[in-house]
Model the fold of this input.
Amino acid sequence: MRKFLFIPLLLVTLMSMASCGGSDNDPLTPETPGEGDDNPDTPTPGGNGRYLVLYCSRTSNTERVAQQIQTTLDCDILEVEPQTAFESDYNAMLSRAQTELAAIREGNYPAIKTSVESFGKYDLIFVGYPIWYGSMATPMQTFLHEHAAKLAGKRIALFATSGSSGISSSVSEAKGLCSGATFTETLLLTSSTLSQMASRVTTWLEQLGANREENNNNNTSMKMNITVGGRTITATMEDNAAGRDFLSRLPLEVTLNDYNNITEKIFYPSPALTTAGVTRGCTPVPGDITIYVPWGNVAIFCKNWSQTNDLIKIGHIDGDGISALNVAGDVAVKFEKQ
Done:
């Protein structure tokens, strides 16, 4: 008799455990949660290492958009997963979404099991999520919160899916979470436009200047041109996170300000270049392109200077090209990829 009583009690227990879940604000389609990635911290690589697609998806809709971007660009992709998997019960998902969003407003972010060591090699990072009650889905909010320092200085392109809600509130949330990043044009697909996903993604990527490239494409080169007046000189950037971040922002036109009697020509990139994981310490020689970490400025040295741990070398002007900058006063220049 005890065995027969145990079975219904077990079923009641399992049903109660499934009662806390989450949902999009306006779910497009139901979903049965899939199995988690065996190695969620390692992006699945594509042939084009310039871009990374990050996404979280309760239903398959955001995942479909992420895969469309990944296929179009042949780039890296990674799913951001909650520590506790989403339940399939619709009402439970609504309750979980409300509870987690309220917790985030109090500064308490729900746990996730996805992390990324570095974003240094990526020119552009796509961040996708469903919209819950007008807000960014909570796993992605946690991810951006935990990786804000690593994403500083990076370009981020947001894309989202929803039943009918707009994207503006979630964009504000993302900018608040990653204030040091640069945000591009966004893409929103609702229940009425999801069928147009392929064409809308293609148009959006064209607007962003993102395109499919092979690893041997010239855009993977660490070389750049510097135009000074009527003269063009060249430079080779360091293959580190800061050097790649600099290249990702080109073309760039700035005025280099003279500093310390033509010792350096400097400017302040906005936002500051990423320096996470980059070795500090440099004894600059003429032609060295550096970052002065305490101030965040780029300094191109026209003269020798003493060793300092506050400098990070990110490149060097080729040959005798530094002579074009070794002049009194400020200099207008244009940096372009080769």
Remarks:
- Residues 2-17 form the longest helix (16 residues).
- Residues 1-40, 214-219 have pLDDT under 50 and may be disordered.
- The longest strand covers residues 124-132.
- The chain is about 25% helix and 25% strand.
